[in-house]
Amino acid sequence: MSDNASPADASTPGQGGGWPLIDGWAKATLSPRGPKLWQTLNHRSACLSCAWGTGGQHGGFRDELGEPLQRCLKSVEAIMAELQPAVPDGVFGTRSLAELQQLSSMEADRLGRLSHPLLLREGRSHYERIGWDDVFAIAEAAFRAPPERVASYSSGRSSNEAAYLLQLLLRAMGSNNLADCSDLCHAPSTVGLNAVFGSGTSMVSLESLQQADCVVLVGSNAPANHPRLMNELIKLRQRGGSVIVINPVIEVGLLKFGSPAFPIRSMLAGSEIASLFLQPVPGSDTAVFLGLQKALLEAGAIKRDFLAAHAEGWEALLEQLEATSWEAITTTCGLSRQELEHTAAVIAAARGVVFAWAMGITHHANGIDNVQAIANTALLSDNVGRPGAGTMPIRGHSNVQGFGSMGVTVKLRAEMQQALEQLLGRPLSRVPGYDTRALIEAADAGRVDSLLCLGGNLWGANPDSGEAKRALGRIDTILYLATKPNQGHFHGLAARQTLVLPVFNRFETPHRTTTESGNNYVRLNEPGTTHLAGADLISEVAFLAELARRLMGSDPIDWGRLQDPAYVRDLISRTVPGYGPIARIDATRQEFSVEGRLFDTPQFPTPSGRARVAPTPLPKLALPKAEHFGGLGPGEGGLVLALITARSYGQHNTVVYKAGDSYRGMPHRHTILMNRADLHRAGLAAHQRVTVQGEAGALEGVEIIPGEIREGAALMFYPEVNVIMKAVVDPRCGTPAFKRVPVLVRGPLASMPAAGTAQPPR
Length: 762
Fold this sequence. Notes:
Layout: E1 16-17, H1 19-30, H2 34-41, H3 73-82, H4 90-94, H5 97-100, H6 105-109, E2 118-121, E3 128-129, H7 132-142, E4 150-154, H8 160-173, E5 178-180, H9 187-197, H10 206-209, E6 214-218, H11 222-225, H12 227-238, E7 242-246, H13 252-255, E8 256-258, H14 264-269, E9 271-272, E10 276-278, H15 285-298, H16 304-310, E11 311-312, H17 314-323, H18 326-333, H19 337-349, E12 353-357, H20 359-362, H21 367-380, E13 390-393, H22 400-405, H23 414-424, H24 436-444, E14 450-454, H25 458-461, H26 465-472, E15 477-482, H27 488-491, E16 497-502, E17 513-516, E18 521-525, H28 540-552, H29 565-575, H30 585-588, E19 592-593, E20 611-612, E21 636-646, E22 651-652, E23 655-656, E24 671-674, H31 676-682, E25 689-693, E26 698-706, E27 713-717, E28 741-748
Parallel strand pairs: 1-8, 4-5, 4-14, 6-7, 6-12, 7-10, 11-20, 12-13, 14-15, 15-16, 21-27, 24-26
Antiparallel strand pairs: 2-3, 2-16, 8-9, 17-18, 18-19, 21-28, 22-23, 24-27, 25-26, 25-28
Helix pairs in contact: 1-3, 8-28, 9-21, 15-18, 15-19, 15-21, 24-26
InterPro entries: Asp_de-COase-like_dom_sf, MoPterin_dinucl-bd_dom, Mopterin_OxRdtase, Mopterin_OxRdtse_a_bac, Prok_molybdopt-oxidoreductase
Domain Molybdopterin dinucleotide-binding: 641-742
Protein name: FdhF/YdeP family oxidoreductase
């Protein structure tokens, strides 16, 4: 238990939220964009940030239950970035590609909004402006390639309607190459939960969460990435509940958090969050949950009657627990038997427990095992299929779950496949599609000709940046649909032609759209207008429908009619499971929960109606020796660590809003957070500049920041650190192990005079 841990040093705050939130809101409000910001905050559209965001028909500050004051600073940052003026006319004409490639993520974002289509031709050093007729001529020619050589990649920034059109277009062409950002984040949640419950999303609604008296929060930095969730944790603690945090890093905001949704005293003094804080070895989460299960078994707290009635295969799990020694569990996860037994007792005593997690669980080579171990624990403790209990993956981007619902996935559900085949009047291709990592590998092997990216930063989101750049450079034509420039537009360049195409964002799209929250709630977004005078933007629906019309005309459906989003919603209602009410949403304005996903009773969409339990193996977590990286030189200190790659507090996905991270005491992005005991053992010192060597490359001149991170682990910022890591993935879903990267940290022994230190790169 570590709920009284100190911050990294005296310069870090003693709580998350609080005054920095007030300061952030004040600066945004008083800026020249302040009036437009407030107009946008009150616009009836869903938040641009995380899948826990607010908005829709309830109004800009209200959640799906109508509760007020549910906007966060993360939402403000995202909106302010979209309210930037257009990129100045001379930028792309005068700044060469080589100059643009020197920009950091923050600098690229702050160029402004994209306002006209751009084309980079093979051998040219500058992007040039082109018209939409030329854009469509290039796109049509590119997508007449054989279907197996055509692919897409998407983020969760866009609407359900655009997502549906994207997958319908590619599947009608005969391609299943629908890579998505979820492949790089929550795919283990989808696969793991489907294996256990027959449904791959949260089984917990906001209303159900508010009935829980315990939340187990694993591998999540919710104060930074999902701030609105903190309001629910504060309310849970206020009603006497428990929050169990499991994370190798002690995040200040998970100890205490001040939220503007609460009275001033709570806002300024902060509210206690974690009642228990466990710091396991990175990547050992399956062992942690096996330990909790074993403790429940030995305490007689396993709900056998419940399992007998509502689960199958659980007997084999109990046999595994009996056969697995405590020594094997504690050695693997680095937690004591007493810690695990105490935590299990809290779970057993609770009336209702919600198990929630983010990418600290999924970003591992055994991410699916981690998810299934959590689901098994929920089942063994009778915490599924009733209000106030269940499993709740915390999705990242605002509509990433909606993309999966719309069929943007390489694992299309049989029910939707049949419905699409009926709509199109022919069988869909059975050739397996490329997920994101498979797409990079196929491109690197020269098997992809044309790629359409609907949002996102494919180059920046991938491990091994050098490999990603090389692979994308072997694709003939790449189309990037985006609202703002990002580093991928300058590094992820096609072999012959790269197009960057400006689109409306969610609150300025000239027609209604919908999105889906991480808790299965579908929101309706009203039309808006853009502040960009004279801009030549297009809606994503309009672009995709026109491309489909040019490629397929009226076969087997009238593709031109898909310019009407209401017609797209009609098709969604006929083909997407659980989305029937969307056909009436234009008339009723009634938002809804997706049918068949929220389980208030322990009846699951599996063949037997029961949950499926299976043992999860203990992970093998040995790190390589220093010699694996070339070893240490004379006079050098250092050690091998398990590196966690993470976002900073001022960051959304690959977009950086603030260079430093005051909560972790990391003043810039060229830093590494390390445990003080590791520094002593390695002969290194705080604020020393070191080299961090990974399996794909090295970063030099990295500043050491001492902090509250588990011994043997370290933390650096994504996407900058991607350049040093190889793409080790979970073989069952292709998700990279971003949260356990073996690295050698090395530098001159602290007692010896150090050579000149490098400055952090731009």
